[in-house]
Amino acid sequence: GENVEQHPSTLSVQEGDSAVIKCTYSDSASNYFPWYKQELGKGPQLIIDIRSNVGEKKDQRIAVTLNKTAKHFSLHITETQPEDSAVYFCAALATLNDYKLSFGAGTTVTVRA
Amino acid sequence: GAVVSQHPSWVICKSGTSVKIECRSLDFQATTMFWYRQFPKQSLMLMATSNEGSKATYEQGVEKDKFLINHASLTLSTLTVTSAHPEDSSFYICSLAGDPSYEQYFGPGTRLTVT
Q1: Looking at the partner chain, which of A41, A43, A46 has a beta carbon nearest the beta carbon of B1?
Q2: What tens digit of pLDDT does each residue of A45-59 get?
Q3: Alpha-carbon distance A63 to nearest alpha carbon in chain B (angstroms)
């Protein structure tokens, strides 16, 4: 099955700086890679996603890059703000696997004011 | 994206009793729904996948007789934790996906505490 590894487990950044979270996956059949933000006591919220036919996608301060050859993808948050503090999860999905998502372990991001 | 609700948002029950958690899609017809369990400071663990009108498919290690899932319609799925024990205390989250759709939309979660 798919194995997704996520690093770092915790990340502390100064407000205004950038944050980068990296994930690797094992199943070459995976073709959809979403990122979720989870605030304390709430369900995960999709913040950005990328499909395997695209190398990069950007939405305002958030961007995701995908390297299919190396089987890794990254989340980039620029100009971080205190409200960006949360746990972020990467995930991978192989449509051959009944649309099941495999999640990374999560990264706790703290933005210092 | 789709709007997903869960009820209740939190529940406390005594050991040995059963608890039902509802997951509703408010604006989206979900062919497939997923149930996850999340322990504190851990990632989401998929428990089962349910398709409307058919039996749920459980992940390895998840007891199907303990966690009963009913996907009765395209907008409602329920998870019943039978004979709950303290080790079942967790955050239960549902998600739904359309057909065909890669995207999953998550509910707000239900905090279950078994005393």
Answers
A1: A46
A2: 999 999 988 899 999
A3: 18
